[in-house]
Amino acid sequence: MSEQLPPMVCLDGDRIRAIRESQKLTQLYVAKVVGVTTDTISRWENNRYPSIKKENVLRLAEALEVSVDDLIKSEEANPEEGEESSEKPPSSRKWLLGLVFLIAVALGAVLLFKGREMAVPAVHAERILPAYAAPGSIVPVQIHLETEESMKGFILREHFPPGWKLIEASPPASSLDNEKGTARWIVRTGDSRKHLVYLVRVAGTEPLGTTAGFSGDIVANADNRQTPTSIQGQTSVEIGPFQWADLNGDQTIDDSEILRAYDMVEEMTGVHLDWEIVDTIWDAGGYRWEEKAKKFIPVRAEAGAASGE
Questions:
Q1: Which residues contact 212 (CB under 8 A, 6 or more apart)?
Q2: What is the average pLDDT value for the chain, to the nearest integer?
Q3: I need a labelling partner for 290 at 20 to 30 A (CA). Which of 77, 169, 202, 250 fits?
């Protein structure tokens, strides 16, 4: 579609505003993605600019997560022109039109193939999730990033389970909708961060024994090519009465698990992950889940053995 657009494109401001408001996106967020001011976004939405550059409409479509066709004004055909075009062309013209059509199809196929061949992800993202999440508890989520030198910034979209609440992130989310379970981050050119992390509170009504899913994608601008790719790694957690650092769900945090948890906490810079409860459980030797209070209670190994826990 981008190859077919003219250098300047006419926008439908009313449609742009409707799409943005339906997705609960602010003008500030859209302006950051496109690389313009909020005043410019306002002028576009109020049809004060008859046309904008092709590059801007492509970035605008990416920010609103719609196709370019949804943003541009549709040209109504002139009735008189339509009547003239309905006249049956001579056979020679038919043959010529058919040849032009075949050439256009072949050229389009070549361009599409080359475009896919060139679409090499400039950013590789991998999600790390805990094995378990207890209802009402707070669990950490890590996204490891590997970027190419030619990367010119990217947008990362993350979808967490509906009903859960993102309470803290590093860097802070550029756009957050806890109702739909969607967060977006804009990472600018020159940002060499290796991790994107956040804390999410599990819905207190999640039934035990079920699983909750995560998904997401990134759009990287490498050499002016926008390439959407899915976030790799883990995509689900099991809902159970277990602490996030308890990898095997045996209601203890052993030495290997405490070391893994320590490494994760070290990487979760910028958010306030409760390390004290993990350390206390490890020192005690075990724990139990208090369903009503929605919290973990450390249990000494001797006390647990005597009470049969």
A1: 133, 161, 164, 202, 206, 236, 237, 239
A2: 82
A3: 169
